[in-house]
Amino acid sequence: MSSFQGVRQFFAVGLVLLALAPGLFAQAPAVPGNPLPTPTAAIQSLPEAPLPQTAEALAAEPGFPPAANGGQSAAEPAASVSASGGSSSSQAGAQPSQRDKAEQQIKEQEKQRIGGIVPAFNVSYRADAVSMTPGQKIRLAFRSATDPATFAISFLAAGYGELNDDAGFGWGPEGYFERSGAAYLDAFDGSMIGNGILPALLHQDPRYFRLGHGAVGHRILYALASNVMCRHDNTHKWEANYSNVGGNILSGAISNLYYPSGDSGVELMFTNGLVVTAEGGMGSLFQEFWPDFARKFLHQDPTHGLDAQARAADKAEKARKHNPTLDK
After folding, report:
1. pLDDT in tens, the chain (328 residues)
2. Contact 203, 232 (CB under 8 A)
3. CA-CA distance, 114 to 290, in Å (whole number)?
4. Residues 6+ apart with CB under 8 A from 228
């Protein structure tokens, strides 16, 4: 099979996923505690941005920084005393901005690792995840691209390439290190362009929002479709993931600069870009089911109770459907 035949087959699979995507993202109504704000009916009815939370609710969140001034919460009204000695009307303390809350959530994500090694910084388990600023997207992409594990994965990929003697680098130490550098540059370019620069320009959220509940088959298709669908920053509606696919193709174009001349050109650009997109689908599958594996076999919960909340909400929703009197 020629490379272009493989590319055509990949495009066919992508078209199937695009056709299935509206149904995948519209399986069930959103429930409280759901790790992903799920659509209610169709892709156009995906949930809007989370409702603004009160300062009291924000201050009560785990990990939210405590207020200064002797332990006074930022949610408590700050009473101002007038010059005449009288007390003026109290005003609520300044609430954290969306940027501040996004920063707090990014700090949570930067602690996420698969098996304590592989970074999962670009995955969100939270239902109330807020949109990141352009600068935060680029910084998070750079953090992922320069993580030591990313270098290690590039060396492993180069070893596999060495065994197959592919990409025209030759065999031996020189060819191995050239492959390692090319593999890392592929990962770096794809991360920075597809998860940082293009999402910042197109106002798309580059993160994988884990579903975490529902039928296994639906979760598998959802994870695969997430590589061609993403959430818009402003509307929080799902749309075509131009950032991810475009970033992978652009990084494939850049790879022409450092791959051997016999393996460069338009064919390499699309082949490498689409291969990376396919690999992203496998990565999404892994991210979707890793917390289930960790809880069952390692007795760890990477979601810190968010999955349990979603399951409880699902159970309560099913009980209400079977017994409508529970709502009364």
Report:
1. 444 444 444 444 454 454 454 455 544 434 444 444 443 333 343 343 333 344 444 444 444 444 444 444 433 444 443 444 444 444 445 678 889 999 999 999 999 999 889 999 999 998 789 999 999 999 999 999 999 999 998 888 877 766 766 656 777 788 888 888 988 998 899 899 999 999 999 999 999 999 998 899 999 999 999 988 999 999 989 999 999 989 988 988 888 888 776 666 677 677 777 777 887 889 899 999 999 999 999 999 999 898 888 888 888 888 888 887 766 5
2. yes
3. 7
4. 14, 17, 18, 21, 240, 241, 244, 245
Q: Classify each residue of 283-322 as buried b or exposed e, where b means 16 or more C-beta atoms within 10 Å of its C-beta.
A: bbbebbbbbbebeeeeeeebbeebbebbeebbeeeeeeee
Residue 63 Cα to chain centre, angstroms: 20
Question: Quick one: which of 286, 249, 283 has its CA closest to 268?
Answer: 249
Q: How far apart are CA 261 and CA 282, in angstroms?
A: 30
Task: Count the Cβ atoms, other than its own, within 10 Å of residue 6.
Answer: 13
Q: Give this prediction's pTM.
A: 0.69
Tokens of 300: 């760890």
Please report how the helices 216-225 and 266-293 are oriented relative to each other, as an axis angle in degrees rounded to 10: 150
Task: Please give the structure tokens belonging to residue 318.
Answer: 């099913």
Alpha-carbon distance values, 197 to 29, 114, 123, 141, 191 (Å):
32, 25, 18, 9, 9
Q: Output the six-digit token pair for 95.
A: 């609430």
Q: Which of 181, 178, 150 is nearest to 165 (CA)?
A: 178
